[in-house]
Specification:
- The protein is 60% helix and 10% strand.
- By secondary structure, the chain is mostly helical.
- It has a single domain, classed as 434 Repressor (Amino-terminal Domain).
- The protein has a two-stranded antiparallel sheet.
- It is globular.
- Residues 71-83 have low confidence and may be disordered.
- Residues 7-62 form the HTH cro/C1-type domain.
- Pfam families: HTH_26.
- One of its GO terms (molecular function) is DNA binding.
- This is Helix-turn-helix transcriptional regulator.
């Protein structure tokens, strides 16, 4: 299971920079960058709501579920040589 963050896509659609979005949401550029790159372990609902308000979108426009990670794990387990 993997959650994909499409924040950069929505920012590009709205022609909004990271600095501008961070200013509108009230979070640091660093924290927003962590979310944008998909490295965040979680996001507060109030932060997500503020991002959605600033970008005029829905949470589903930013977050996407993918089950592909489980396939990758299975493939990786098969590819590891056993000595």
């Amino acid at each position: 299971m993997k959650i994909i963050v499409n924040l950069d896509v929505m920012m590009a659609r709205r022609k909004m920079s990271l600095n501008e979005l961070a200013s509108r949401v009230g979070v640091t550029n660093a924290n927003l960058s962590i979310l944008k790159t998909g490295k965040a372990r979680g996001v507060r609902f109030d932060t997500l709501a503020a991002v959605c308000k600033a970008l005029q979108c829905q949470p589903g426009d930013i977050l996407e579920y993918s089950d592909e990670e489980s396939e990758l794990v299975e493939y990786t387990n098969e590819a590891v040589p056993v000595d």
